[in-house]
Amino acid sequence: MDKTKIENFQRTKDFLLCVDSDGCAMNTMEIKHRRSFGPKIIEVWGLEADQERILDMWNHLNLYASTRGINRFKGLAALFEKLDAEGIAQIPGWRELKEWADTTPALSNAALKAEIEKTGKEILKQAYDWSLRVNESIAQIPMEDGGPFENVKETLAMAGEKANISIVSSANGQAIQDEWGHFGLAEYTDAMLGQEAGTKSICIEGLKAKGGYADDHILMTGDALGDLKAAEDNGVLFYPIIAGQEGKSWKRLHDEAFPRFLAGTYAGEYQKSLLDEFKALLSD
Predict the structure, then answer these.
(1) Structural domain contains residue 1
(2) Range 72-77, long-range pairs (CB < 8 A, 24+ positions)
(3) Is residue 1 predicted with pLDDT exceeding 80?
(4) 241 assigned to some structural domain
């Protein structure tokens, strides 16, 4: 069965655990941004003169600010907007990229390619080239340089006894399959949804509709405010993985939060206390 398509998902448990990949389950976020995403921006748009400053801005935007975990194309448009506003560089057509990223139902290479075929806009061609180069670069990173955070495998094994598990990620789908398969985590999943399946909100909506779960029987686990928004868009619960404290966060999910989720005591004050801690550690 192809786990990458929502229409193939089958509910077999009363609960659903949705899990983001990069920076949440997999210790790959820093590596991918510092070795691939950022350097390829400099390469494609010829921004070597301001390389250090631009890379710092990119890393802050994607790793340490409230926009942590943003989709690659939305992040690219946000960077270009900031470069323009601060007088660092003017990227021709960035507003057209932003308009597409803000309105497309699917933030993927395939969706971008279809838009290029329709409009022929140069900025979209450049963004597509950049994205392909990023994927090629990521494919060259040794998997052992990343891998799952501490306590991820044990938690997924435990959760899978009571809940269906789906990856819900904005990362490249093939990379997700490769990484989760390599580290023996794919076997715990019932669905593996990357950027090709739609936004995180759309993926959760689709899983919810396909499985017919009650709102309080779905728990989205993520490390970014975008993951929280995807959960809130669908009226489901959210568990935060704290950046820099990932192993500890997964241990708390295993020992405390997931049992509360099953028992119906997660929502309310307990979830609020976790969200307050989560939001306080992400700043602009």
Answers:
(1) no
(2) 72/37, 72/107, 72/131, 72/134, 72/170, 73/97, 73/100, 73/101, 73/107, 73/112, 73/127, 73/131, 74/101, 74/102, 74/107, 75/37, 76/41, 76/101, 76/127, 76/130, 77/101, 77/102
(3) no
(4) yes
Same domain, 153 and 22: yes
**pTM for the full model?**
0.81
Residue with tokens 């963004």: 127
Q: What are the tens digits of pLDDT across the range 101-159?
A: 999 988 889 999 999 999 999 999 999 999 999 999 998 999 899 899 999 999 999 99
Number of folded domains that form the chain: 2
Per-residue pLDDT tens over the stretch 226-269: 999 999 999 999 999 998 899 999 999 999 999 999 999 999 99
As a whole number, mean pLDDT of residues 164-175 equals: 92
Could you tell me if 158 and 258 lie in one domain? yes
Joined tokens for residue 153: 């495998």
User: Domain of 171: which CATH number?
Assistant: 3.40.50.1000
- Are residue 169 and residue 258 in the same domain, yes or no? yes
Range of the domain at 33: 29-139
The dihedral sign for the CA sequence 58, 223, 170, 175: positive
Task: Give 60-63 contacts, CB < 8 A, sequence gap 24+.
Answer: 62/29, 62/33, 62/37, 63/23, 63/29, 63/30, 63/33, 63/243
* Residue tagged 């999943």 (tokens): 189
* Bridge partners of residue 246, in order along the sequence: none
Residue type for 10, please? Q
